[in-house]
From TrEMBL:
The lineage of its organism: Archaea, Methanobacteriati, Methanobacteriota, Stenosarchaea group, Halobacteria. This is ABC-2 type transport system ATP-binding protein. It comes from the Archaea. The keyword Transport applies. Keywords: ATP-binding, Nucleotide-binding, Transport.
Length: 324
C-alpha cells in the first residue's frame, strides 16, 4: 500500500484548474520530491492531502486513510511543515515545542527535538518573534517532528535557510527516512530536491508531467551527457572508433582529446574499452550530465504558464539563480 495515493485529484478555483487529474503514488519509506514552478499546484495538492482544501474531483488516501472521510485518523500520524506557518511572537521556541507535544499527546523530549533541528538551548528560551527566518524554519520543523510521524509533509522546507542550514535540513530529512519515515518534500529549487529525494514528481500547471529518479528523468529526455577523454597520444583514427560505439551520437576531437555525446549511459564504459583495445592510453575521463536546469526547462517549458493563471514570475529555479 502506498503512503500517499491520489486518483484523478483535481482542484479548480473558478476558471482556474490549480490541480488537474493528479494520479500520484508515494511508497512507504520514500523521500519523494514534489517539484514545480511557482503556481504549479504543489501547495494546493498538499492542502488536499491534509483536508485543508476539498477536491473538486478525484480521491486521495494518506497512510491508507481517505483524506476526506478519515482525516482524523491521518493528522496524528503526519508531521507537517507548512509554507508560511505562523508562530506566536511572545512564546519561546521551547514553549512552542511543548505546546505541540501537548496537543499531539506525545511524549517527546523537547531538548532532543531542539538538538535535531539545530536550535540551541539559548535560542529556545527566546521569544519566537525575534527569530530569523532560518530559526523559524527550524522550530517549525521541530514541531512537525513531534510524535514521531509516519509521514512528514514539508512545503518548501529549505526556504529561508543559509547553505549550512540547507545541508542540515537535508541530512535531517535523510535521517528521518532512515528511521522509516516517508517524506513528501515540495520545492521549486532543483538542487535541494536532488540532494535528498529518491524520486521526484514534476508538476507543471497543475499536471504531473514526470515521475522518476533524477537519473531516470535525465535518460528520458535523451541523455545528452558529454564525456571528455584525455589521451596520452595524438587521436589518429580514434574518433572513428568512438563514433562506431552504439550509444554515442557525436564525437569531436582535438589533438589529444575526444568529446563524445552519450545517448546511452552504458556507452561510457564501452568507449573506454574500445579505445584501450585500439592501443590508446586514456589519461583522464570527465563526464558532464545534463544540467538540472536543462532537465527542468525541458519538463516545464521553462516554467512558462500557458493558461490563464497569474503568470509565475519565476520558473523552476536552480539554487544559483535563486541566490542572484
Ligand atoms: N484559495 C485560492 N483561490 C484561488 N486561487 C488559488 C487559491 N489557492 C491557490 N490558487 C491558485 O492555484 C494555483 C496553484 O497554486 P499553489 O499555491 O498550489 O502553487 P504552488 O506550486 O504551491 O506554488 P508556489 O511554489 O509559489 O508556492 C495558482 O495559480 C494559485 O494562484
Amino acid at each position: 500500500m502506498a503512503a500517499i495515493k491520489t486518483s484523478g485529484l483535481t482542484k479548480t478555483y473558478g476558471e482556474l484548474t490549480a490541480v488537474d487529474t493528479l494520479d500520484l503514488s508515494v511508497e512507504y519509506g520514500e523521500v519523494f520530491g514534489f517539484l514545480g514552478p511557482n503556481g504549479a499546484g504543489k501547495s494546493t495538492t498538499i492542502n488536499m492531502l491534509l483536508d485543508f482544501a476539498r477536491p473538486t474531483a478525484g480521491t486521495a488516501t494518506v497512510l491508507g486513510y481517505d483524506t476526506q472521510a478519515q482525516a482524523d485518523a491521518i493528522s496524528p500520524r503526519v508531521g507537517v511543515l507548512p509554507e508560511g506557518f505562523d508562530l506566536y511572537p511572545r512564546l519561546s521556541g521551547r514553549r512552542h515545542l511543548e505546546f505541540a507535544i501537548e496537543t499531539k499527546a506525545a511524549d517527546d523530549d523537547p531538548d532532543r527535538i531542539l538538538e535535531r533541528v539545530g536550535l540551541s538551548a539559548d535560542d529556545a528560551r527566546r521569544p519566537a518573534g525575534g527569530y530569523s527566518k532560518g530559526m523559524r524554519q527550524r522550530l517549525a520543523t521541530g514541531m512537525a517532528l513531534v510524535g514521531d510521524p509516519d509521514l512528514l509533509i514539508m512545503d518548501e522546507p529549505t526556504s529561508g535557510l543559509d547553505p549550512h542550514g540547507i545541508r542540515e535540513m537535508q541530512s535531517l530529512v535523510r535521517s528521518e527516512a532512515e528511521r522509516g519515515t516517508t517524506v513528501f518534500f515540495s520545492s521549486h529549487i532543483l538542487e535541494h530536491v536532488e540532494a535528498v529525494c529518491d524520486r521526484i514528481g514534476v508538476l507543471n500547471e497543475g499536471r504531473l508531467v514526470a515521475v522518476d529518479t533524477i537519473d531516470g528523468l535525465r535518460e528520458s529526455i535523451g541523455g545528452g551527457a558529454t564525456m571528455e577523454l584525455t589521451l596520452a597520444d595524438p587521436v589518429g583514427d580514434l574518433p572513428d572508433i568512438a563514433r562506431s560505439v552504439s550509444g554515442i551520437s557525436e564525437v569531436s576531437a582535438t589533438e589529444r582529446s575526444l568529446e563524445c555525446t552519450i545517448t546511452d549511459p552504458t556507452a561510457k564504459a564501452t568507449v573506454v574499452t574500445e579505445l584501450d583495445a585500439a592501443g590508446a592510453t586514456v589519461h583522464d575521463v570527465q563526464i558532464e550530465d545534463v544540467s538540472l536546469e536543462t532537465l527542468f526547462t525541458a519538463l516545464t517549458n521553462g516554467g512558462e504558464a500557458g493558461d490563464a493563471r497569474e503568470s509565475p514570475a519565476s520558473a523552476v529555479a536552480t539554487e544559483s539563480e535563486v541566490a542572484k
